[in-house]
Write a structure and sequence with these properties.
Layout: H1 19-24, E1 35-36, E2 41-42, H2 56-74, E3 77-84, H3 87-96, E4 101-108, H4 111-125, E5 147-155, E6 177-179, E7 185-187
Parallel strand pairs: 1-4, 2-4
Antiparallel strand pairs: 3-5, 4-5, 6-7
Length: 188
């Protein structure tokens, strides 16, 4: 408060576009403590780590390594990879489903870059036990920049089991079930 001339910042939440800035941000400006930007990789040339944006392959490799490390550290865990332009609001809906952490992984002014990264991450992790992504990724976000790729986690010790993914009803083929002799159900 003293640095800001006594201004009350109690309702202000900040999402920095660079993990180095996020790690130095005063906790009272960070918003929800369950949403972390500490691993955030920024794509903009204005990032503090470099005068040029990181190359796509380097960014993908770094973000994949971060997902791997976070999922392994929380194991056993349920997780989802996604994109948003409103991280705090997005996390509130995940918190209602039992997720306890959101890690912002990548930020960009370009929605296409974040959509492609999300699709690549889902492709890399979708078959891993605990992954709850059903769609292939890249469907959103809707809203204004900046856009964020994220990982949400629900460690199983927090009361969520490794249940199966829910199906997207809009993309399922119709199923016809019939009873046959002996009471078994036949999918025909």
């Amino acid at each position: 408060r003293r640095e800001l001339g006594g201004v009350d910042v109690s309702g202000l939440a900040c999402v920095p576009l660079d993990g180095a800035v996020a790690r130095r941000l005063p906790p009272e400006l960070g918003g929800d403590v369950r949403v972390s930007a500490a691993r955030l990789l920024a794509s903009s040339a204005g990032s503090s780590s470099s005068s040029r944006p990181p190359l796509a392959g380097a960014s993908l490799g770094r973000v994949k390594a971060a997902v791997e490390e976070l999922v392994d550290a929380a194991a056993p865990t349920v997780f989802k990879i996604g994109i948003t332009c409103t991280p705090f609001m997005r996390f509130r809906s995940y918190a209602k489903e039992g997720y306890t952490q959101m890690h912002l992984l990548y930020a960009s002014e370009e929605p296409g870059a974040v959509q492609m990264l999300e699709a690549a991450l889902i492709d890399a992790f979708q078959q891993r036990i605990g992954c709850r992504n059903v769609a292939r990724g890249g469907e959103g976000p809707v809203g204004r920049a900046p856009y964020f790729a994220y990982l949400v986690l629900a460690p199983c010790g927090d009361g969520i089991g490794l249940l199966r993914k829910r199906m997207r009803l809009g993309r399922c083929a119709p199923v016809h079930l019939e009873r046959i002799e002996g009471g078994d159900i036949f999918n025909g």
